[in-house]
Amino acid sequence: MADLDAAFSSSYRQARERFRAAATQAGFTLTEYVNDRATGPEGEVLVTDVAVKGPADADRVVILSSGTHGIEGYCGSGCQVALLSAGEFDVLPSNVRVVLVHALNPYGFAHKRRVNEDNIDLNRNCLDFAAGVPTNTDYEDLHPVLAPEDYGLRPAHWDAQVGEWIKARGFPAFQAAVSSGQYTRPDGLFYGGSAPSWSARTFRQIVREAAGSARDILLMDIHTGLGAFGELEKIGLGNQVAIERARRIWGSDVTNLAGGESNSAPVSGDISVPFFEELPAGAQGTAIALEFGTVDGVAVLKALRLDNWLYTQVDPNAKQDLQKAAEIKATIEAAFHPDDDRWRVRVHELARDAVRQGLSAS
Ligand SMILES: [Zn+2]
């Protein structure tokens, strides 16, 4: 049994130190990708760490990543460190290389936000901006009540307005409007940006380097915040052929993000886009998000709205806002990495099972 208290961290600095130590101990080689655009809350350098083990000419590569959505990385990092410490990667099949990506969005991880240093949702940011971005007129309609200047001062008022919108249009339309991604409001929710972010460019490079000359590359990207407490949804990414492959590896309950059967709304520009694009010619890729449920969706959205308000409308470090900021940070932590031992045990076991399935797939 892994020591989960020693695996699940409470700060980016601690998570990073633990990941690097556990990876080194398990025989992995580490590479640093330094984010030169931002620093952590204590001025610490922000780094995506990549740990690799296995032959350089392996046929198969298994990538396990954490922190695409910043704060969700506390769960992903905890799972990675627990698996390393428990010896899950001590003996690998001879044709497999394992690549662990730690804190793909280190700004969000360190500052306990879902977004990056530019308020960008990395899983809406990975698209070809030159080819044009999706329009989301329903988000435009909702933005004034979702992310008003005074949201943190009178949330109940604005929540009631949102309730009216849901009553008029229905919850599925609301979820699609809010979370499918928008490219017009940098101070809004689920903003996809106007160019590839540092994390998006870095991930592309990591996949290119990780894939090498492999013929078969798997990606498992750990997330939290959607679904029932402690439950796992395996969200299949990519085209139908890739989804079918994912079902053969992880089970028939793999959902299809694009197919409307996931807890998540269909999105554009998630990290599977560069993953599939960067694979060597002729190689096959298979990608899933491991999505662990926390609290209910309304509470998660409220936490995101409060956090968005804190960073776009007030200064989270200003003295007069410190109390409010601390309350908001507690709310968003509860929404994305619950301080609950049973939850940690459950998600760690589910992640371990998915990793074993990925490693043994042929
Ligand atoms: Zn996520």
From TrEMBL:
InterPro entries in UniProt: DUF2817 (IPR021259)
Name of one Pfam family that matches: DUF2817
Top-level taxonomic group: Bacteria
Name by which UniProt lists this protein: DUF2817 domain-containing protein
